[in-house]
């Protein structure tokens, strides 16, 4: 792996035209691959977009770029599962966990008040824990965490050791959360999928790990949520650049 050139492979797909023209988001994905693996990465992302439960895309963009920056290795967050019986119970638990991570209660309340407004944002919303306001300035685009991957062999080993199902959805979600929470400006993350068939979500934080919550919305609901609670007193431009541009491999060994 050391000394080998890697490429960032990214996919986005939508229905009724591109995202910028009001198209409905269907799917997105990220991979880091050596040149010899780019073809397989493109194939995997293509399959993901064409088989998504949100619909059939009529616009798709797949691109890859050479990664010039050194790749950072990040350990996966420790994982726990919280069983909840309803979306109300799941979201109440999420509020409690976010507060335990260090976000003031009034900021948590304001963030949840804006969830319906944020559901159409294509990326994540950056929410300041001090002012209780969205501060990324990206409107509908949001912040898209990019340039990350979790090598399959390491993920399979991690899943076996932790007794977790080795499915791609968990791999992708935990990889994103681990990169996000590694950033010093991020206090906590709240997320659930816009997939109408998937109702599990999570709260993630350095001090809490990755807290899966088994019911965060109702079946058939296509609204999603991704909020990064950040310390707005830090350099937000630098934070966004790190989340979008710093290449990261998740590795359970945790060392380069």
From TrEMBL:
Q: What are the transmembrane regions? A: none
Q: Which InterPro entries match?
A: BioW
Instruction: Identify which cofactors the protein needs according to its UniProt entry.
Output: Mg(2+)
Quaternary state and partners of this protein? Answer: Homodimer.
Q: Which UniProt keywords apply?
A: ATP-binding, Biotin biosynthesis, Ligase, Magnesium, Nucleotide-binding
Alphabetically, the GO molecular function entries are:
6-carboxyhexanoate-CoA ligase activity; ATP binding; magnesium ion binding
Upper lineage ranks? Bacteria, Bacillati, Bacillota, Bacilli, Bacillales
GO BP annotations of the record are: biotin biosynthetic process
Catalytic activity reported: heptanedioate + ATP + CoA = 6-carboxyhexanoyl-CoA + AMP + diphosphate
What's this protein's name?
A: 6-carboxyhexanoate--CoA ligase
User: Pathway it belongs to?
Assistant: Metabolic intermediate metabolism; pimeloyl-CoA biosynthesis; pimeloyl-CoA from pimelate: step 1/1
Role description: Catalyzes the transformation of pimelate into pimeloyl-CoA with concomitant hydrolysis of ATP to AMP.
Enzyme kind, highest EC tier: ligase
Q: What is its EC number?
A: 6.2.1.14
Name the family.
Belongs to the BioW family.
Give yes or no: UniProt keyword Nucleotide-binding: yes
Gene name, please? bioW
